[in-house]
Amino acid sequence: MAWFSRPGRPCDACRKRKIRCLVSDSTRDCVLCRSQGQQCAFVEAPPKKKRKQTDVESPEEAAVSSVSPAGTQKEPLHDYSKFPEASLLSQTLGHQPFRTNSYIGATSSPSRLLLELPGTSELGKYRASVSGSEVRRVSQDGYFLMLQDDQSAIKEQLEVLDKIEAAISPHGPALVELYFRIVHPSFPILHKDVFLVKYGRSYRELTPACLAAVYMLALNWWSYSVDLADFVRPDVSDLEQLVPCLMAFDKAAKVSDIQAGLLFLQRPRRDSWRLTAQLVATAEEVGLHRDCTAWQIPDWEKGVRRRLAWALFMQDKWGALVHGRPSHIKADNWEVFPLEHEDFPENVEEDHVEQGSSEVEKGILIFIHLSTLTQILSDVIDELFTVQASKRHDSTVALLQTAKPIQLRLKSWYNSLPSCLELGTTTSRKLSATGQLYLAYLTVEVTLHRAIVESEVKKPLDAGLRQITREAAIMRFKSVVDFLKRLKPEHMQGFWHFASGSCLAIIGTFSLVLLATSTDPGESKAIYSQIAEFRWLLNINGPGAGFTKPAVDLLQSNAGFLATYRPQAPTKVIPGNISDRADQSADEILTTALSNTGRQDEGESNSANTQAFENISEDFQALPSGISFSPNQAWLYDFDDLVSQACST
Predict the structure, then answer these.
(1) SS3 of 134, please?
(2) Domain boundaries, the chain
(3) Three-state secondary structure readout of 84-116
(4) Tell me, what's the pLDDT at 516?
(5) How many helices (DSSP H) and strands (DSSP E) are in the chain?
(6) Element (H, E) at 430
(7) Where do the TM regions start and end (predicted)?
(8) Helices 463-486, 614-621: crossing angle, 10 deg rounding
């Protein structure tokens, strides 16, 4: 399949944007119109031609012509600051080709105070100390150093761009269309029109990292394109080999490189935590941590900066969780306002009609709600898992007091989800990304309960509170099992956030913690059976959804551990105890715990503790309405055989 510029007249949409009208030999509609879910139109009359002005060749244009492959004509690159006010790229701060902007901080050199002083003459005016730079003021206290890339860097970048394009040619436009159909609605960190405007003029107006990242992610859904399905998929390793040089630490900081880095991180990577740290530093370099509401930049760029900032916030916080590392982003230096619908230029009218696409409106809501959930996760980590947090909690009761308001926020967050994001609500022949949102929510719940269960081992609770907290924790694990049962192929084949696989592994670890800390035979059997169910569901959902592999590998490698805690007389049906009480209300569970559990000789102290947590028990034990308990089920698979093999080795 070949893509080429439409001979003769471009369609109305491409003419408005002044970009090439790219069509293939198998379709009548161009890549821009197909990405918008519309047909090419030729209704408007062409504008009157204006007399051409002779332009002096810019350094960028000279660089383009000097490295153009033989027989290939490259489009000239543009200085966007000279575009007319009506242009989408006019006055952009961070999207100029071959230019870098560096945020001037409060303690850096040059001084923001001195920059504000009016000079009595041009000679006496305070200047930035960086040679060849100029200062751009975007707000009262917002200054940036604007730097021009040197010629050797420009030449190298253009050469790499040509290598990237050659690696996937002639499928580039089809992959771009696929990316904006499936990935972008669920992970909207690019500005669709800006990307297509640049790409429509020349792929050389993009940065190598961003172009490669879009191609690499789109390759995951190769078979979902009617234009690509019959062709051999390019080897992604050719692009993977370029990633280290694309994200090298010595490169100039650019907004597009942060976008590219986040896209690269949605694929499994061994260096993901180090790359995250690099992206946070790059974001600080370009001022992404600051509020840009009042900045003198295009409105669309403000939206991009907010979306990108929150995507990085999510990457950092979820990365901190799955790697067990301190977060890089601190609240004291985070000024970005919460996301609103106005920050997303796409709308439901841009939903793609082609089957296998993602839904735009749902994607926006998922992204917004995931960002607010991540703020709660951030507090879970800060309040329960940091070095200093562990010193603040001298008892599990103290930890419960810290956990209670966080649990209430989680409950409120869940109740705020719109009905269109219910897990069972899917659209015919459309992919759904709601699975990642529910998995993220359940992981935060599990992480909260893990802190309580592990604390209780070293700092025991009285028997009544211990029973309450363990029943709540086991219920959370059961809700995960129920969640996995309700997933459909539309979920499994959709976009899943980078942490999804690790979230399942964290939940698997939590189940092992529950099993290892259980002191009741009936409870142990129930947990063991739920772990078997968990593994079975991962196996049957796994084909075609590689993100389940970390959890499967975790349980596989811990077969010996499971054998150690295997119930003496395993049954084919989940036993009673906790599961028999699944339909009881939180109040009934609490009442039973208080009436049937003997008191330790702390008397009034323990009684007061139990009374203090009457409310917390309700929050910990009430499952959200959309997630039900797993029913008793016969397990007809080889989980027990796996453990038996471990026993005999």
Answers:
(1) strand
(2) 3-35, 151-346, 359-648
(3) CCCCCCCCCCCCCCCEEEEECCCCCCCCHHHHH
(4) 94
(5) 27, 7
(6) strand 430-431
(7) 495-516
(8) 20
Contact 297, 96 (CB under 8 A): no
What's the CA angle centered on 434, arms 432 and 437, to 5 degrees?
A: 150
Nearest Cα to Cα of residue 134 among 118, 153, 115: 115
Distance of alpha carbon 274 from alpha carbon 255, whole angstroms: 18
Q: Are 546 and 527 in contact (CB under 8 A)?
A: no
Lowest mean pLDDT among 5-9, 84-88, 498-502, 630-634: 630-634
Burial of 122 (0-12, 13-18, 19+ CB in 10 A): exposed
How far apart are the C-alpha atoms of 77 and 70, rounded to whole Å? 18
How far apart CA 95 and CA 101 sit, in angstroms, is 9
- pTM across the whole model: 0.79
Tokens 């100039």 belong to residue: 252
Helix (H, G, I), strand (E, B) or coil at 358: strand
DSSP 611: H
Residues ≥6 apart with Cβ < 8 Å to 445 = 410, 476, 479
Q: How far apart are CA 7 and CA 9, in angstroms?
A: 7
Confidence category of residue 7, pLDDT binned at 50, 70, 90: low
Report yes or no: 348 and 388 within 8 Å, Cβ to Cβ: no
Strand blocks (E) in 110-263: 134-139, 142-148
Q: How confident is the model at residue 24 (pLDDT cuts 50, 70, 90)?
A: low
Yes or no: say if 191 and 303 are a contact pair by the CB < 8 Å rule: yes
Tokens at residue 112, please? Answer: 């923001």
Q: Which of 265, 83, 296 is nearest to 189 (CA)?
A: 265
User: Counting Cβ atoms within 10 Å, is residue 595 exposed (0-12), middle (13-18) or buried (19+)?
Assistant: exposed
Q: Which two tokens stand for residue 291?
A: 């509020």
Full 3-state SS string of 58-81: CHHHHHHHHCCCCCCCCCCCCCHH
Residue type, 537: L
Alpha carbon 642 to chain centroid distance? Answer: 35
| 145-169 pLDDT, tens digit each | 888 888 888 898 899 999 999 999 9
Q: What is the DSSP letter of 29?
A: S
CA 193 – CA 342 distance, rounded (Å): 16
Choice between 246 and 409, residue whose per-residue pLDDT is larger? 409
Cα angle 368, 374, 379 (rounded to 5 degrees) comes to 140
Q: What pLDDT band is residue 253 in, cutting at 50, 70 and 90? A: confident
C-alpha distances in Å from residue 646, one per residue of 223, 534, 642 = 40, 19, 7
Range with lowest mean pLDDT among 10-19, 266-275, 554-563, 624-633: 624-633
**String of DSSP letters for 540-578:** HH-TT-GGGHHHHHHHHHTHHHHHHT--SS--SB--STT
Cβ atoms < 10 Å from Cβ of 244: 9
β-strand partners of 135: 145
- The C-alpha angle with vertex 546 and arms to 542 and 551, in degrees rounded to 5, equals 70
Tell me the two tokens of residue 7: 């001979």
